[in-house]
Design goal:
The chain is of the alpha+beta class and 363 residues long. It has a domain of 210 residues: Ribosomal Protein S8, Chain: A, domain 1. 38% of the residues lie in helices and 15% in strands. Helix 1 crosses helix 11. The chain is globular.
Length: 363
Amino acid sequence: MSTEFFVISESSHNELVIKAFLNRDFSQSESELAAKFSSYASWHGIRTHNAIKALHLDELFGSGSEGCKPNVDIEKYPSRFEAAETWNANRKLGQAVGYMAMDRAIELADKYGVGIVSVDNAFHYLWGGGYVMDAAKRGYLAYTNCTAALAEVVPFMGKKATLGTNPHSWGFPTTDAIGYPIVIDWATSVLSMGRVQQFIREGTALPPNAAIDAEGNLTTDATKAKAMVPFGAHKGYGLALINEIVGGLIGGGLPTLRSIWKDDGEKHAPCFFFQAIHPDAISTGAFAGGKNQSENIKAVLADILGEGNEKCLLPGQIEARSAEKCKQNGGLLFSLAEIEELNNIAKECGATTYDLSNLKPAT
């Protein structure tokens, strides 16, 4: 049975999210960036990393614990490299840091062709695809990865969770060529824990070979899932290792100690890595047939999706369709279960709850 969705205006959604974060002592700017990010995720159909997920994470691992500190400043370390910066986020809200880091990487790319921002002592930034998608829409190649807040994934051929879900996100400036940016964004596990939480809300079974229970046995019961399995066996495992190694180079601590707050001389917060590349910085200008860069990309993609492949999708296409559906409906789309969660958030911060009878069903 398909899920029914209802329309909530973006302004109403953002007002609620801002109030919820202000209620947890975040600054006005942090709360506004949190709302902006949550809206962007919902607009593009990313239900696993919407406002519900953001506030749930903050409650469990953020300001409700010791993982995130409201209204703090970022410390920028000295660097001898003009195009690369290193930051101490001081556990500032991840969405605020994410937007600031990608904006700075773009500024550096405008000047040097490429810009890198590496962030230590961070807090979960949610959907990495949102940052690279935004950068790609602005005309840049963009990449980010992060180490996750918890060790929830077992290594290939292992039995104990010692890796995060450790996502990778790439964005490509293809809007002129095909109408939307190509965005390749995934956790390195078969499922993210956000997806598991979505399945719990919707009462949906997990796919096979995606999660293990407390005894280390594979399970399709979302309520019993205790750890995730890497996608693609050794391939997903290798990609997850990349994040841990990059995090280790930045200054991050042991993955099994993340979010376990002790005064033990160890570090317990995630790390972020952001990179933006100006497309002119990698262009030779020597495109066949006198094409420009955008025309060449369009031709390359058309060749890939040629005869026999017409029904294939490009990464980012589903998100573009979701954005178009939101645009047609005049707002963000939420399921009944999600609206109930939003109403719980509203009650927590003293905001007006949503009356389902006043919400328009999505078409």
